[in-house]
Design a protein that fits this description.
heterodimer, A: alpha/beta, six-stranded parallel sheet, 19% strand, globular, B: alpha/beta, 37% helix
């Protein structure tokens, strides 16, 4: 049973922060949780949106983005975090900023057991790779957290991942 | 599998022939021999040397080319490095930056790790893969005459270019000692962006 949901506000809050910060390149591997934000970025002619085949491409690309004087961000889901690990070494060795907006699976109300490994593994995997990990649990806080994560990464030149709780993305009742 | 051609080009001679015409082009290297070769051709503030992150070079070139559409961007990497990130060909092909040229120095070997054959030694055609991924300009280069005709094309912002240059298996010593990643990045950005690098 699927009910029609009205659009959430938090994806647009992220988009507004991207505009304020001056994000020019948005790399993504599609995720249902990021659909609205991806569509908003695609519709904005002042942003370049780059669909990736795998998340590690985005890490490398955003190093080049910063090298060329632009700011970028990557949208991904937790299952793609593991794909990034070796290339995150570039960000640490070179002190590149990296803004990762990670929609979480495998935690709050998950139905798919295959999502748990990377869902539960995402925070320690990122921390072990030298990424500053922050987390937002309430929809109304998302904009503020993205803004703070952007300031942190672009001013300290350290990779930062903001995890968006699965609770914000919504509970799917798969028993029906 | 029988080879049609024996590779005779020397990797450093090939890279010198390309980089002597670099003008204001921006250069990203892959790790390993191509990094050392580019350093040996003459250090430059707008060289970005990857000493790690295998598979990253082509995508780093894409981010740079999108950020700097008026500058030509050259990625100079090896066959093993390119093979590790083949999805990048599809991503770059769909973006279609006019100012990006990817140059694979293809000795058909993992020369840093004991000279094991790569898949290009077994007939995998990297230029063919790039063409299939919508790169408008692609070639496999076997000799100096072909290379000479391609050098100006690599600097022409006329659509993404991909060339695999078949080279012999000569190994050279590391010719560059510059390894500090933060320094390489900051130097590159300051040369490209001036004071805005620190805004």
């Amino acid at each position: 049973m699927k009910s029609k949901k009205k659009p959430a506000n938090w994806p647009n809050d992220i988009y507004e922060v991207f505009k304020q910060v001056g994000i020019k390149q948005v790399a993504y591997v599609p995720d249902a949780g990021h659909t609205q934000l991806i569509n908003a970025c695609n519709a904005d002619k002042s942003m370049k949106t780059i669909s990736l085949t795998t998340e590690e491409e985005g890490v490398a690309m955003l190093a080049g983005t910063w090298l060329g004087g632009e700011k970028g961000a990557m949208l991904l889901q937790s299952s793609g975090v593991g794909n990034c690990i070796n290339l995150l070494s570039i960000m640490n060795e070179c002190r590149f900023p990296l803004l990762m907006i990670v929609t979480m699976r495998g935690e709050w109300g998950e139905f798919n057991p295959w999502q748990l490994a990377m869902g539960q593994g995402t925070p320690p995997a990122l921390q072990n790779a030298g990424v500053v990990v922050q987390r937002v649990d309430r929809a109304k806080d998302v904009g503020e957290f993205v803004s703070a994560a952007a300031q942190l990464t672009f001013n300290t030149c350290r990779p930062v991942a903001l995890l968006i709780s699965q609770r914000i993305i919504g509970f799917k009742d798969w028993s029906k | 599998m029988a080879k049609k051609f024996k590779a005779t080009l020397d990797r450093r001679a090939a890279i010198n022939r390309i980089l002597e015409k670099r003008g204001d082009a921006l250069v990203v290297t892959g790790l390993g021999s191509s990094c050392y070769d580019v350093g040996a051709a003459g250090d430059h503030k707008n060289n970005f040397y990857l000493w790690g992150g295998m598979g990253a070079a082509a995508m780093m070139g894409l981010g740079l080319a999108l950020a700097q559409p008026k500058r030509q961007v050259l990625v100079i990497t090896g066959d093993g490095e390119m093979l590790m990130g083949l999805g990048a060909l599809a991503t770059i092909g769909t973006q279609g930056p006019r100012n990006l040229s990817i140059i694979v120095i293809d000795n058909e070997l993992y020369s840093e790790t004991g000279m094991q054959p790569t898949h290009t030694a077994r007939g995998v055609d990297l230029a063919g893969m790039a063409k299939a991924a919508r790169f408008p300009r692609t070639a496999t280069i076997y000799n100096d005459a072909q290379l000479k005709t391609w050098v100006p094309k690599l600097y022409a912002p006329a659509g993404s270019a991909f060339v695999a240059i078949k080279v012999n298996d000569t190994r050279y010593p590391m010719a560059i000692k510059l390894r500090d990643g933060a320094h390489i990045k900051n130097r590159f950005r300051e040369a490209l962006l001036g004071n805005a690098a620190f805004d």
